[in-house]
Specification:
With about 210 residues, the chain is mostly helical. The chain has eight helices and two strands. About 10% of the residues have low confidence.
């Protein structure tokens, strides 16, 4: 099935043709699953994310505004945006509950800042939960403040920092997930980290 056929199916699906929707999911299902696997790095979690993403697609399909010159390509880009949004919203919901369902311990732990002894730069790090009761409340407040500030960042900074520092994506994985070159990853991550630090220091809740 070529891009012209996909473009035709998108038009039919938007006209509430369920059969067309089934064919699009069948055709682009592998693409969406690969995106989900990039973000979750776990096949089971990727399946769940793909299912949730397709549900979001069906609910918001009328919001899709594709390029007239290449509807199929712009639809793939829109699918990427949907998958990323569903992934981040789920991550942040778990963060607020202080829970994690994957192998990382970040959500059940505390988040703090660590200064690099060589560069002097600060970056967020995950700490084991404190055993000292008199410090637990204070650290939980600090952790909650960091998460809320992270949530308030504009894109792509929010995604960049979540994937790099909490999901521990390497440079190649970040480049693929964000659709940027590996050479851009370092520059962009430093810019986003400084934006986060600035917002934390100012107490701002607006965008970058």
């Amino acid at each position: 099935m070529g891009d012209d056929a996909i473009q035709s199916l998108i038009t039919e699906w938007r006209a509430v043709n369920d059969k067309a929707g089934e064919l699009i999911i069948e055709k682009l299902g592998p693409y969406v699953f690969r995106l989900c696997l990039h973000f979750t790095r776990n096949p089971d979690n990727a399946e769940d994310l793909a299912q949730d993403s397709w549900i979001r697609v069906m609910r918001t399909l009328r919001q899709f505004r594709g390029s007239k010159s290449d509807v199929a390509a712009s639809f793939r880009s829109w699918l990427y945006t949907v998958v990323k949004s569903v992934f981040l919203n789920d991550w942040l919901k778990r963060s607020r509950r202080g829970k994690r369902e994957n192998s990382s311990a970040a959500m059940n732990s505390e988040i703090a800042w660590k200064r690099d002894p060589v560069t002097g730069e600060l970056s967020p790090v995950v700490l084991e939960p404190s055993a000292a009761p008199d410090r637990e409340h204070e650290k939980n407040e600090d952790s909650d403040h960091l998460r809320k500030t992270l949530d308030s960042l504009d894109e792509p900074c929010r995604t960049m920092l979540i994937l790099k520092y909490f999901e521990e994506f390497d440079h190649q994985e970040l480049a693929e997930a964000l659709g940027i070159s590996k050479s851009t990853v370092d520059h962009k991550s430093k810019y986003c980290l400084k934006a986060l630090q600035k917002k934390l220091q100012s107490g701002s809740g607006g965008g970058v």
